[in-house]
Amino acid sequence: MNSNLHIITGNKGFVGLNLIDYFKRQKKESVGVSRTPKNVELSYETLSLEQLNQAKSFIHLAGKAHDLKKTSEDKEYFEVNTELTKTLFNQFLQSDCEVFIYMSSVKAAADEVEGLLTEEVKPNPVTVYGKSKLAAETYILAQEIPDNKRVYILRPCMIHGPNNKGNLNLLYSFVSKGIPYPFGKYENARSFVSVENLCFIINELIENTSAPSGIYNVADDTSLSTTALVKIIGDVIEKPAKILNIPKFFVEVLAKVGDVLPLPVNTERVQKLTENYEVSNVKIKKTLQKELPLSVEEGIKKTIASF
Fold first, then answer.
1. Which of 12, 48, 71, 270 is least enclosed by beta carbons within 10 angstroms?
2. pLDDT one-digit tens code per residue, 261-284
3. Helix, strand, coil tally for the chain in percent (to 5)
4. Interatomic CA distance for residues 8 and 56, integer angstroms
5. pTM for this structure?
6. How far apart are CA 207 and CA 52, in angstroms?
7. CB 71 within 8 A of CB 83
8. Backbone Cα Rg of the chain
9. What DSSP character marks residue 211?
10. Residue from 270, 196, 273 nearest 228 by CA
């Protein structure tokens, strides 16, 4: 086994590209697994025990992402997020590879959070995305893990980083175009995780042979309100954000109109921007006994500066 080789699925995705880059800086070798392999990549179809035996870790990032346009079939989620994971995990169990990391999501636990989301919560996903991720977790946890192997299920909250616009894009466009942010009356708290902190955690789990197998939430140390986020964006692009304190009643009426007419706000969008979703990272930090490299503010600033 090559203790410096790491196999990564989803290597062309946002997290995958960042992880490969992070590993390079740590002098680690990585190889991707792909449906249509190019150059040195491995293929899902032909992935062999021999190849797995040569790697220290298998990091399964590939998955079918949350479909905001709602055009996907439910079975696609289970094929990719559940069945593919089962197949790869079974191969890992038969191999000499030591560490398996499965990239799940906080959405496998809960779509809405009261208080602080910890790993102890009884999972109750509502979306098919969350259900398919949970089904994969459940399968992994039901298998017997040999003593010489470690298995980590990571549940990151909203991941962001340079060049990944995600949900921050909508807020960025508000501020950069000088449009006032209209939801100043809402006080909420949301957790984020910068891709740099996520890569750091993956790397530490591989190296830390005493870190017990199990489920770990992944989040930055502190949460932010959307209003604070808008202010940070304004600071970074040197365009002070305008915050309007429109009464919630008016916002709700406007959102209902937006459900019917093409307005920039609708019920779903208002909920996304103003809801609470706080995720605890106490367990992972206790396990690693290290501080995360970036604070939530530093991470957000890095992301915004890249737009």
1. 71
2. 998 789 988 998 999 999 999 999
3. 40, 15, 40
4. 11
5. 0.95
6. 18
7. no
8. 20
9. S
10. 273
